[in-house]
Amino acid sequence: MHPVITYVQHPPLQDLYQAFMDGFSDYMIHFDMDEARFEAVFLVRDQNQPARSIVAYADGKPVGVMLSGVAHLNTGWVTRCGGLAVAPDYRHLGIAHELMRQFDEQAAGTRLLEVIQENAPALALYERLGYKIDREIVYFQSLSTRTTATRERVSIHELFDTYYPTAIHSPIWQVDVRTTQQQTELVRVVEGETSGALLFRDNLLLDVFGSDEDAKWLLRAAAAEGPIRLTLTSDRPALLMAARQLGFVQEKIAQFEMSKPGTDT
Fold it and tell me: Where are the alpha helices (DSSP H) in the chain?
C-alpha cells in the first residue's frame, strides 16, 4: 500500500535536515554533519532559503527535500535548486519529479541547478524537465608552486566595485559572493605590468580575475603560499589548461551546471 505523500513549503528546520540526510544517505558524496552544521553550510553559506524549500512527507515522515534559493544578478532573477534528494525506500514514487515541478512553479527567472555527472537518474530527470547543460564544474588540488609576483590582500569592496562589474565570466552560484554568504579574502597579485586578483575562502580558490594569457601565472601565484583546492569551469578553458600544465590533480567528482529559462523572464 502506497504511503500518503504530502508537500510542505517552508518546513521546520529539523525536517529539512532529516529529509536531506536520509535522501543523501547513499549519495556519491558522504555528508556527515549535525543540524547546526547543515544550517551553517547549506542554508546560510549557500543561501538555500527555507521559505523557498520544500519537504515531501510520507505518512507524516520527512522523506524528500528540495532546497532552493533566489538572487537578482545583472542578468535578472535566478532561482537555484540547491539540493534534491529522496530517501532510498521512497524512490520511484514520483516524489523527485513533483518536488521539481513545484520548484519550477514557484521559481523566478532562470532556473539553475548542478548535478554530478555520474548521477544518471538525476541527469535524466532534469533533461526530461527541460534543463540543458551549460558547462562543466571541475575540481582540482594544487601542487606547490613558486612565484615572483607580489600578493596583497585588498578590501572585499573591490570585488563588487571593480572585479565583478568588469568580469567577462559568470561565476557559478557556490563561489559567487553576490549569491552566497561566506567569509572570503580578495588578493591582488602584481608582477611588473601584469596584475590580477584571486578570491579565496580559506584554502579554496573560488574565483580568478585576469586575462586568459595570464592564466598560468595567476594559478601559480594562487598556490605559491601552500596547497589549495580550486573550482574551475569548462567555459574558462585557459584556466583548465593552466591547472593541468602546472600538474594540479583533478578530482574524480565533476558536475554539470544546468539551467532552464523561466517563462516569467
Answer: 13-23, 35-38, 95-106, 120-128, 157-158, 164-166, 215-222, 237-245
Considering only CA atoms, which of 136, 218, 206 is closest in space to residue 171?
Answer: 206
Give the whole-angstrom CA distance, residue 162 versus residue 246. 28
Whole-model pTM: value is: 0.94
Pairing of strands 229-233, 132-141: antiparallel
Nearest CA to 85 out of 101, 53, 63, 59 is that of: 63
Q: Going by DSSP bridges, is the β-strand pair 132-141/204-209 parallel, antiparallel, or unpaired?
A: unpaired
Distance CA 65, CA 43 (A): 13
pLDDT in tens, the chain (265 residues): 789 999 999 999 999 999 999 999 999 889 999 999 999 999 999 999 999 999 999 999 999 999 999 999 888 999 999 999 999 999 999 999 999 999 999 999 999 999 999 999 999 999 999 999 999 999 999 999 999 999 999 999 999 999 999 999 999 999 999 999 999 999 999 999 999 999 999 999 999 999 999 999 999 999 999 999 999 999 999 999 999 999 999 999 999 999 999 875 4
Rounded distance between C-alpha atoms, residue 148 and residue 133, angstroms: 39
